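step 3/5: co-fold with NAP
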Amino acid sequence: MTLLNQRILIIGGSTGMGLAAAQTLAARGAEVLVAGRSREKLDTALTHIRGKAAGYTVDFTDAASLADLFGQVGQIDHLVLAAAQDPAWGPFAEVKVSALRHAMDHKLLGYWGSLQAALPHLRRDGSVVLLTGAASRFALPGSAGLAAVNGGIVAMAHTLARELAPLRVNVVSPGLIDTPVYDAMPAEAKAGMFAGTAEKLLVGRTGVAEDIAPAIAFLIENGFATDMVLDLDGGAR
Ligand SMILES: NC(=O)c1ccc[n+]([C@@H]2O[C@H](COP(=O)([O-])OP(=O)(O)OC[C@H]3O[C@@H](n4cnc5c(N)ncnc54)[C@H](OP(=O)(O)O)[C@@H]3O)[C@@H](O)[C@H]2O)c1
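step 4/5: write tokens
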């Protein structure tokens, strides 16, 4: 019961892997604080979490919004960063610098600003879990933009595990996971992408958010875990 009454903030906790983590952590006795931009998504998420939970609006690309969030949330034991938007997919020759800059703003710099804003409120020997992405762990043509954004987070996590110790800093690197992030894709294109990926994976299927949530909980719970990258990608590498 190491999670009992631990206060855990999940930025990007209203859908997908962040929400699955919130459900798992709350079920193990933690108090989960889920954050995202949409009040509506947060309210829906709260109806799916059994246990102690609250929802807060934040835009993690905005320093004032982050300051407001931490003013409301107060002290926390652990932080999970699971938000992202508009990844810079596509062949290297076609991804414009402006698209990569936008993707950096909406993931790497969002993580950077969130952790910086969290530090004064985060228990010194608590932990941080950063969700990155498998595209930075092996060479996947068409994913150089994702590799750059997520690889930057992995690299910074190694440094921060040492610089911020005894705070523990860990990474979960998921492969293709069926979450609402793909809702905007035409159904046929999405089904094709998931089927095509599944047949190449060692496990013969793509992931679901529930594959990832216990890994996030493990890294929070295990006081001996720091500077780790947990690759959960069905064998994609
Ligand atoms: N799904 C995959 O296949 C996959 C693979 C590898 C890595 N990942 C990474 O895993 C993480 C979780 O992905 P997911 O698929 O679970 O995503 P998701 O279902 O789309 O959830 C994203 C969450 O982030 C929030 N969010 C987005 N932009 C935000 C912002 N500017 N400020 C604050 N919150 C924001 C969203 O709520 P609002 O929209 O209301 O803000 C939502 O709660 C992301 O970092 C993603 O890059 C995903």
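step 5/5: annotate
Residues 11-18, 36-38, 41, 58-61, 82-85, 106-107, 110, 131, 133, 174, 176-177, 179-181 surround NAP (CB under 6 Å).
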